[in-house]
Amino acid sequence: MTRETGGASKAGTEQLAASGVTPDAASPVTPDMVPDATPGMAPDATSDMAPGEAEKDAPAVRRRARRRRRAVLVPLATAAVVLVAWQLVVVVGLVPNFLLPSPTQVVAALANDAVLLAQHSASTLVEAALGLVIGTAVGALVAVAMDRFEAVELALSPIVTVSQTVPTIAIAPLLVLWFGYGLAPKVILVIVSTFFPVTVSLYSGFRSVDPDLIDLMRTMNATRWQIFWQVKMPAALDQFFSGLRISATYAIVGAVIAEWLGGFAGLGVYMTRVRKSFSYDRMFAVIVLISALSLALMRLVDLLQYVTMPWKRVERNDNNG
Prior knowledge:
Elements: H1 2-18, H2 53-92, H3 103-112, H4 114-148, H5 150-162, H6 168-179, H7 183-207, H8 211-219, H9 224-260, H10 267-276, H11 280-308, H12 310-320
């Protein structure tokens, strides 16, 4: 009992001294003189906190918040300036209204034809999605084969390059002639437009792998499949998604181009019809819709990258911190 009281007296003396109170030598320090701990906190909880840690983190938090605000506000402000300038150009009469509709007229056309545009957009999205998925699969298989077999790389590399020197607008009529006005020519044109960025980016990612990592895996008796799955594929994913992002934009454009030359539904068919009636406000409405769909596909690719590459999230958080 005496030892416990002495321990408490010593602790009380230290806390009083730290608070600037000097106890009288003749007056023993009793446990009731020790200041109470903060409610809800253990007496030694503050010892685990680094001094000034919250103050050090505050500037980094403020920088991240400012970065996020700029990432949202700067594009919005730029778009607002462009739209206001466009509206003023039309209102003042610098460009005739029958040639260039105002932004308000474009918005009105979008609202008036919303149901019809939704139906045509569904057809275009189906064609673009099918072509993008198949084109991505074909491009990935070609890239893997070119990386795995040197003979395949020598044989297919010139063909892959030459395939992109032919304008898609030039082969679209041939596809319509060969496969009719149905879904097939649109999907094939989207495949031709989208497989090249995926093939080139993924093959470049495979070739950019550090050879020392591959040698290290071989010293640990790793198989070719293990080296591919655990070293090459993770290293190439970043470039793969960069190519897939480009292919996503090509998918919508390729589907619309194919629809221009023949079809029964789709945004390209809609554009052909309104062009013949000189409805330029509805033409601009379709252009805005095509851009929105392309951006939506790109955001979908970003979401897929976010899910499949968790280590990139860690790196991004470290860089922002």
